[in-house]
Amino acid sequence: MMNRNLIIPLLVRGLFLLFVWWSLSGGALSSWWIGGPAVVLALLVSMALLPPQHLNSYALLRFIPFFLIRSLLGGVDVAWRAFHPRLPINPLLISYRLTLPAGLPQVVMVNSVSLLPGTLSVAIDQQRLQVHVLNGGQDYLAGLQQLEQRVSRIFGESHQRSKAE
């Protein structure tokens, strides 16, 4: 008998993948002879590669507007710098120590760093994240720490303060 902790994520992923196939196929019933097995295979592979994890729904919902606002601010910041007559940049490559556990929490963090104004993830090696910042004079460390704290809340992790070197 399957564990309830596995059934719900399996159903949610399965419904999501069914919706994706339905959207891609335009709802054509004739496509399901390929879509059905493709959805089942995608579901099995996704469960093997990314086992279900407990997420804090409230923290995830709070992260969405944070993500959208920071993405907009990041785009505006880069555009402003690109079109500014003096091109105000002072690029810097920093090493940021992550306190998030390896796996999905770090993946979300690394991929979200680029949404902060003037930052871009370059590489990750164990608990060290290399970040390119457009203006080394700005307080990028506070933004990285705030982002890591928000990501840790999504995954229910206890968060310890990180440091840049």
Q: What layout of secondary structure does this protein have?
A:
Elements: H1 4-24, H2 32-49, H3 57-83, E1 92-97, H4 104-113, E2 119-125, E3 128-133, H5 140-154
Antiparallel strand pairs: 1-3, 2-3
Helix pairs in contact: 1-2, 3-5, 4-5
Overview of this structure, please?
The chain has 165 residues and is mainly alpha-helical. It folds into 2 domains: 4-49, no CATH class; 57-154, no CATH class. Helices cover 55% and strands 12% of the residues. The chain contains 5 helices and 3 strands; from the N terminus they run αααβαββα. The protein has a 3-stranded antiparallel beta sheet, with helices on one face. A hairpin with a 2-residue loop joins strand 2 and strand 3. The radius of gyration is 20 Å and the shape is globular. 17% of the residues are buried.
Produce a short descriptive summary.
A hairpin with a 2-residue loop joins strand 2 and strand 3. This protein is mostly helical and about 160 residues long.
Number of helices: 5
N→C terminal distance: 50 Å
Give the helix proportion (percent range): 55-70%
Overall residue-averaged pLDDT value: 86
| H and E string | HHHEHEEH
Q: Could you give the count of β-strands?
A: 3
Q: What composes the largest sheet?
A: 3 strands, antiparallel
Give the overall silhouette.
globular
List low-confidence stretches: none
- Quaternary state of this entry equals single chain
Which percent band covers the strand fraction?
5-15%
Strand order of the largest sheet: 1-3-2
Tally of discrete structural domains: 2
Protein structure class: mainly alpha
Radius of gyration: 20 Å
